[in-house]
Amino acid sequence: MNRTQSWTRGDFARLETLFHCANGYLGVRAAPEEGAAEGVDSIRGTYINAFFEIRDVRYGEKLYGFPETQQVMVNVPDTQTVRLSAGDERFSMFRPEATTREQTLDLQSGVMLRRCLWHTALGDLRVEMRRMTSFTHKGLFLLRYRVTSEGFTGDVTLSAVLNADVRNHAAANDPRVAAEPLKCLSVRSIGLDGGEAYAVADTLRSGLSLCCRTAYECRWPTRQTVSAAACETVCAGPLHAGESVEMAVYAYYADSRRENDPVAAARAGLRECAALGAEKIWAEQATFLRAFWRD
User: 75-117 pLDDT, tens per residue?
Assistant: First the structure.
């Protein structure tokens, strides 16, 4: 088990690497669901094994035999975004109002847990995020976002986003990555289908495509909106002392390297997982890992 109780702004990208979730097919960096605060060293990314793009290699002085292109892993549509608001306040793990912060990667249950106590003007809220990439459903990223009132009374809003407007990380002084943010995907279609959000995208040069599809569970009513490259699902309602509300996000990825029809594969995979339910999928993960560590 790995654990940290400090959030260091200049070192957070390393923590995102150490606490990532991956299953050999799908990998999700441990970026903050609500997004990183200004000045925080964060590299938000989700990746599919062997799903790549081609980019040109630039040289100050090109010589004979130097490669003209290279293959790069693609940052695929982001489904880990969940934003929390309480009254007029927006939650961030990096603000001083968030205390007793803890982040844990449990290697026995195969889940990453992040939690803290948020002191709002209307009372305290316990905030807990639990996430995993499934070993039994390789295309699945599962996230549960739970908010519990510990003296809080007021309105709470949870907003989950499927964002297809993503780019690869860039660093001017790192030769391993591009000097400028690299756009690898063109969004072919994005929308809502029976309460599920979806995005279909193609790489610009390597000829690959993928589909990402998400479903949501919350006891409060939801409203959904679509923009040019994102779908947002919002749940809102009142919370009183001792009460909890949670949003479960099921995100399923399928790509053309493995599927003849990624759209159909993502739809079928998502609906199978949503029908099983989060609790059964958490239990499947723990059972898989018990056998893995035993053998």
Answer: 999 999 999 999 999 999 999 999 999 999 999 999 999 999 9
Angle at 88 between CA 86 and CA 91, to 5 degrees: 50
Q: Which residues contact 235 (CB under 8 A, 6 or more apart)?
A: 157, 158, 159, 216, 218, 220, 221, 222, 245, 247
Q: How many Å from the N-terminal Cα to the C-terminal Cα in the chain?
A: 19
Reduce the DSSP state of residue 282 to 3 states and report it.
helix
Total Cβ atoms within 10 A of residue 209: 20
Longest dimension (CA), the chain: 71
Are the CB atoms for 198 and 212 separated by under 8 Å? yes
In angstroms, rounded to a whole number, what is the distance separating the alpha carbons of residues 247 and 249?
6
Question: CA 97, CA 127: separation in Å to the nearest integer?
Answer: 12
**Single-letter code of the amino acid located at 61:** E
Residue that the structure tokens 């803290």 belong to: 116
